Amino acid sequence: MSAVASPTALICGISGQDGSCLAQLLLSRGYLAIGTARDAQMSSFANLDRLGIRSQVQVVAIAINDFRSVLQVLSCHQPAAIYRLAGQSSVGLTFEQPVATLERTSIGTLNLLESIRLLDKGIRLYNASSGECFGDTGDARANEETPFRPRSPYAVAKAAAFWQVANYREAYGLFACSGILFNHESPLRPERFVTQKVVRAACRIAADSGERQQLDNMDIQARLGAGLLNVWTPCGACCSKALRKTSSSPPAKPAPCRTSWPKRFLRRAFSGGMMSQPTQPLFALQTCASAERTLRWLQRC
E strands of the chain, at which residues? Predict the structure, then answer.
């Protein structure tokens, strides 16, 4: 009797925090994990190396905003599931690159949907949407019924992709769903994100670098969850669970997250002295491993 072939999962955005964690999960479940990158030979896959799974993941080149490129990749690899995680993740940077943001996020999602429709192979699609689509809700809590009021090029592109997924699901019966994700953190975040900026600066200050840590806005409130929770837990916007459901009609809900403030995080990262001139970093943050303990604290703050 011939062995049953492993199902193939195509992860768009495998080099990022969520894509790497998701690849690790899918590999543990017997999937063949294929990741995409604009340049498969030149792109960095440090997170896959850090998780020890780089050799188990196949990486292919794709131009997500080029329909022919997307159709070719899907035709060649015949995935059972596609996880659409790739995109510009810095909201601030999207104001500087609004056209590229819309092309990669909205047009890229549309190319995937149209390719799935034309191939007609029953491919399932998970699209990573964002809580940024809700915009400023004031004191009200957002849920699946809250209207979108996007206030950045990032949010506009994510909102457009969300409704494209809904349209293809309703018009063509595709198994396509969106998960509404809020800010989520893990030690795999790159340094351009504020949490990593803080803990890495704390490491350098602990080593007597003489620098100062400065943040512009200390009064913002952010909904934070754990990056690993979005992939590993059996509830909310878990990417994997969303595509194991029998129907894609109900929207995927946000993963659990809690409100946090920069002041609280900085107090945790530094102990003693003024906030603007910290002295001894908490946990003696001289190593990446100890810095990660501060990141994991975000999951409970």
Answer: 8-12, 32-37, 58-61, 81-84, 124-130, 176-181, 183-185, 222-226, 258-260, 270-274, 277-281
At position 89, the amino acid (one-letter code) is: S
Supply the pTM of this predicted model.
0.76
Report CA dihedral (45, 47, 53, 59) to the nearest 10 degrees.
-30
Could you tell me if residue 186 is inside a domain? no
85, 12 in Cβ contact below 8 A?
yes
Contacts (Cβ under 8 Å, ≥6 apart) of 170 = none
CATH for 65: 3.40.50.720
Tokens standing for residue 165: 């997924």
pLDDT grade, residue 121 (50/70/90)? very high
CB neighbour burial string for 188-203, b if at least 16 within 10 angstroms, e if fewer = bbeeeebbbebbebbb
Collapsed DSSP state (helix, strand, coil) of residue 123: coil
What rounded mean pLDDT belongs to the chain? 77
Distance CA 238, CA 229 (A): 8
